[in-house]
Amino acid sequence: MSFKLDRRSFLASTAGFIALHPFSVQAATNQVHLRLMETTDLHVHVFPYDYYADKERDTVGLARTASIVRDIRAEATNSILLDNGDFLQGNPMGDYIAYERGMKEGDEHPVITAMNAVGFDASTLGNHEFNYGLDFLMKSLAGANFPVVCANVSKEMGATPRDDKTLLPPYVIMDRTVTDGAGNSHQIKIGLIGFVPPQVMNWDRRHLEGNVQARDIVDTARAYVPEMKEKGADIIIALSHSGIGAANEVEGMENASVPLAAVEGIDAIMTGHNHLVFPSSAFADFAGVDADKGTIHGKPATMGGYWGSHMGLIDLMLERDGSGWRVVGHASEARPISKRNEDRSITALVESDQAVLDSVQADHDATLAYVRRAVGKTDAPLHSYFALVADDPSVQIVSIAQLWYVEQMLKGTEHEGLPILSAAAPFKAGGRGGPEYYTDVPVGDVAIKNVADLYLYPNTVRAVRVTGQQVKDWLERSAGMFNQVEAGKADQVLLNPSFPSYNFDVIDGVTYEIDLSEPSMFGPKGELENAGANRIKNLMFNGAPLDLAQEFVIATNNYRASGGGKFPGALGDTIILEAPDTNRDVIVRYIVEQGTISPKADANWKFTSLPGTSVLFDTGPKAADYAAEVPGVKIEAAGDGPDGFARFKIDL
């Protein structure tokens, strides 16, 4: 039994009546309809509010997602509500709690308060739960009125995962009473097991090294799922804060949900981390995945977007036989809280749940005061509309502040006197965030909200010591942002949609060109694809060709320096400085010291000239206000792009 459902077919109500899901209607004696609801990647988005833009936003917020929980529960005879991780960090409210208010024993984190108000049944950890350290994490989780599980992060490792002393319970088996189609009550044991990408050991090394260790997701599942069955779990649901990626299992996979779904004994899988929606056409060509039916290896799965944008739903028809319960039917969907109209406007499909808003109103107000605090001034606009196609002021101010800081930190060390470069990437550059997802700070006061807008994550400063060859290869890795183009051909697509903007590092302190007619040396995930490729041309240092044997220091962040993105020269073994300060704090200090900053792109990189060639790219509509000011490149409007974006053209 399987159903493909329109995402809103059963949300509509007339005169207070809400239609039951077909499983609830069709369930017979000894058959139970169980609905699994999922949020994922909330990133502290409780209010439908963009703190960076300081305005309401209809596309986000747990308060909005919560408002449809009642109706979604009403469509099913039995239901549970789950969260799939990445709830503690990700917007200024998270930073306000971590850096300003703090978490003392007995304090309650606002996102936990909101989740309690909604009535979650369980959660797992995401990788960003570790960003503020283990002490902050454990104090935050102490306020949860629901269990939080994670099977593959341990304080002490044993011979096998089952011998580990895990940081949190690896799983929970919930005893629930469910009602069958005839109205009879039954007992069922629902097993929930959680997983986080093992890459947390690199991404948050400063917090985790020496304190915990992380295991492979799939190996851990193979160890614990049989144990859960031994302890009586009738069905097992994997809370996988891991994306939907390759089907072939590889040790230590970050996006391991496809091979995880193949583990015997797992009945359904909640996914996340990708910040995407499943089922959807985004996964149409993935091996082992049926994007129409919403299954992975034939098992029901969902991914509820991010920031509360969707509620992921899995409907299970369970049948009781002599040996317990088994899944005899399933359906999956992801229900949105808003929709984008043809005229690019947004229509909210739900209103906020007032009880959820009220539960964290005081922290919301305190966060607004926190982000509106001025720290200096800028005499030029800071925007990221063209950060992926030209040297950019919003990236440059980050780079300058990092260099300024690292130069001070290396004084008196053995590394003093080495030339210092600085690598920075744009974080807000459209993409999945939509056509409004760009940095845009006008001339005038620069507040903390603006600094957070320039640098989204609470990374800490790192410095690595590399050779000139590694500098070049670092830039070759970054140049994978661009598709290869054919010289002499007009209007070719410039940007590779599978390449995330946060991996497009620009290195200041050198000048260089990117030859788009060459293939990329590296694939989107850092895999070597074309060893002989040579996109980086005319790489110069101090006006002379860069010496590939010379040593340099590159200022960057802990994510990149520890192997995030797999950049040559930044794989964790070249770190010479692990600074105690976040990149954001460094930017704030730099602006405070300068008083007024003058962020101007210096065009230290550009595309190699290709006569008769032009490329197209999409960015936010407000980019039109700045297109004529971009140095070293001619940018022209080229009409509308999809989903509210604007299209522009570059003549190479």
Summarize the structure.
It is globular and about 80 Å long. The chain is of the alpha/beta class and 652 residues long. It has two domains: 13-365, Metallo-dependent phosphatases (Purple Acid Phosphatase, chain A, domain 2), CATH 3.60.21.10; 373-651, 5'-nucleotidase,  domain 2 (Alpha-Beta Complex).
What are its keywords?
652 residues, alpha/beta, 5'-nucleotidase,  domain 2, 8-stranded mixed beta sheet, 41 strands, disordered N terminus, Purple Acid Phosphatase, chain A, domain 2, 2 domains, 17 helices
Describe the 3D structure.
Helix 13 (393-409) crosses helix 17 (583-594). The chain has 17 helices and 41 strands. A hairpin with a 5-residue loop joins strand 40 and strand 41. The strands form eleven sheets. Strands 11, 12, 14, 15, 16, 17, 18 and 19 form an eight-stranded mixed beta sheet that branches. Strands 8-7-6-3-20-21 form a six-stranded mixed beta sheet. The protein has a five-stranded mixed beta sheet with strand order 31-26-35-29-36. It folds into two domains: 13-365, Metallo-dependent phosphatases (Purple Acid Phosphatase, chain A, domain 2), CATH 3.60.21.10; 373-651, 5'-Nucleotidase, C-terminal domain (5'-nucleotidase,  domain 2), CATH 3.90.780.10. Mean pLDDT is 92; it is low at 1-16. It is α/β, with parallel strands linked by helices and 652 residues long.
